[in-house]
Amino acid sequence: MTSVTSAEPAYKEYLDALLDAGVLIYTGVDGVYGKGGIFERVLDAFDRYVTRMGTDQHATVLRFPPVITKKNFEKSDYLKSFPHLAGTVHSFNGNEREHVDLLSKLEQGDDWTTHFVSSDVVLTPAACYPVYPTVAGTLPPDGRLFDVMSYCFRHEPSIDPSRMQIFRMHEYVRVGNPSHVRAFRDLWLDRGLAMLRAVGLDARQEVANDPFFGRTGKMLAVNQRDQALKFELVVPVCSTEKPTAVVSCNYHQDHFGETFGIHQHDGTLAHTACVGFGLERITLALFKTHGFDLAAWPVSVTQTLEL
């Protein structure tokens, strides 16, 4: 059971219910949970639902590990906007003497991590990030469309069970000209909303912004909202005043095209957009809405999810 007692009561109440029912398993770190069988059953069902609803997209399926190369991570400019969310991977490269010193620090309760150095990989912050380097060069006339799914990491520990540090994201990613990309975004905003409502969730669409870091980040957030580059589909899980974003639609303009050298067939920079389904968040919203007994869920929901 979590030791945090100062969080919002609604979050703690739902988290305690999830832990008591064995839906989630607490690991000792907020936002890092094991998952019970019932959780995985519902999550897998919704993941398959996302796949079925995207069949008409004829997307290229790609699956990457939950790490990306440090080189591509640096190139993406993620550190300029979200250094507070990043997670790096460090490894021990020392000799025997340094190993002895490491073990001594471990026994004494000192910081043994000083013996670890940065590796060549970084934890993936979003499922779409490994895609863009793979499409560098010139696109076919109609661009490209991808289906990707991955574990992602963001360092934001919270008592809110929906705000996990490591989570799965199923995305569709469109790369092409601005009209293709905007049409893709608009299609998935409507489709995603219909999907959530079809499984009994009280979802609505909102203009949103990413959690940019620092003073400059505040200006970036305002610009993102003013241009309506990011939309979220939100559902009241623990709060109606602060609903939870469960689907995100992002239009990056030509940022990744310029960063990774992705060009349209006519030689101009490609634009990109993605729609991401937060599988853990949607699963938690389903349990909050329908309860932990799947047999008591509305038939329309279980039929839609093929549970």
Summarize the structure.
The protein has helices spanning 9-20, 37-53, 70-75, 78-81, 96-108, 131-134, 178-198, 214-226, 255-260, 279-290, 299-305; strands spanning 24-26, 33-35, 60-62, 67-69, 88-92, 116-123, 137-138, 144-153, 166-176, 204-207, 230-235, 244-253, 262-263, 271-278. It has 307 residues and is α+β, with helices and mostly antiparallel strands.
State the fourth-level CATH superfamily of the largest domain.
Answer: Bira Bifunctional Protein, Domain 2
Helix content: 25-40%
Major beta sheet summary? 7 strands, mixed
CATH class of the largest domain: Alpha Beta
* Number of DSSP E strands: 14
Terminus-to-terminus distance:
29 Å
Rounded mean pLDDT score: 93
Q: Largest sheet, order of strands side by side?
A: 3-8-9-14-12-11-10
Q: Predict the CATH topology of the largest domain.
A: BirA Bifunctional Protein, domain 2
Q: What's the tally of helices?
A: 11
Order of helices and strands: HEEHEEHHEHEHEEEHEHEEHEEHH
- Low-confidence parts, pLDDT < 50 over ≥5 residues? 1-7
What's the number of domains? 2
Give the overall silhouette: globular
Classify the secondary structure makeup into a structural class: alpha+beta
CATH architecture of the largest domain: 2-Layer Sandwich
| Strand fraction | 25-35%
Q: Evaluate the radius of gyration.
A: 21 Å
